[in-house]
Amino acid sequence: MFAPVARWDTVRIVLAVAAQEGWNVYKMDVKGAFLYGELKEEVYVDQPEGFIKHGEEDKVYKLNKALYGLKQAPRTWFSRIKSYFQKEGFTKSRHDYTLFVKKKEEKIIMVCLYVDDLIYARNDEEMCSKFKKSMKEEFEMTDL
């Protein structure tokens, strides 16, 4: 199973840069993150206990979306969030696949992904506001 987890040294570096530059650090949580993942293969599950259709006990359900607990869920979620970041003009770090950076002239925002949580720091308030707004339009978020 693969879950998008930022390396601790990456988180420490982002926090150190933010502290040194006097940037604020923010945290957001994606509600039901794994439900955003699109399955690329066919996945079937048994009928859950307590919800078995009488007379059709031998039938299974075909999933259209990933679910928590499904081994494909973390991978499909990471694929989904990565495509969002790419669409928004972020670059994935070559050293940590869960660090995304967006630069525009002297403006910069750094985002670390830890499964369904994000921490981010920036040097421009407008860029931060646009990022938060965009994330909330794309995903159901909790702004922590």
Outline the fold blueprint:
Blueprint: H1 8-21, E1 25-30, E2 44-46, E3 60-62, H2 73-87, E4 91-92, E5 99-104, E6 107-114, E7 117-122, H3 125-138, E8 141-143
Antiparallel strand pairs: 1-7, 1-8, 2-3, 4-5, 5-6, 6-7
How is the main sheet built?
A: 6 strands, antiparallel
Q: Helicity, in percent?
A: 25-40%
Q: What is the string of SSEs from the N terminus onward?
A: HEEEHEEEEHE
- Strand ordering within the main sheet: 4-5-6-7-1-8
Strand content: 25-35%
**Uncertain runs:** none
Q: How many distinct beta strands?
A: 8
Task: State the end-to-end CA separation.
Answer: 27 Å
Number of helices: 3
Briefly note the structural class of the backbone.
alpha+beta
Structural commentary:
The chain is α+β, with helices and mostly antiparallel strands and 144 residues long. It has one domain. Helix content is 30%, strand content 26%. The protein is built from 3 helices and 8 strands, in the order H-E-E-E-H-E-E-E-E-H-E. The chain has helices at residues 8-21, 73-87, 125-138; strands at 25-30, 44-46, 60-62, 91-92, 99-104, 107-114, 117-122, 141-143. The chain is elongated, with a radius of gyration of 18 Å. The model has no long low-confidence stretch (mean pLDDT 84).
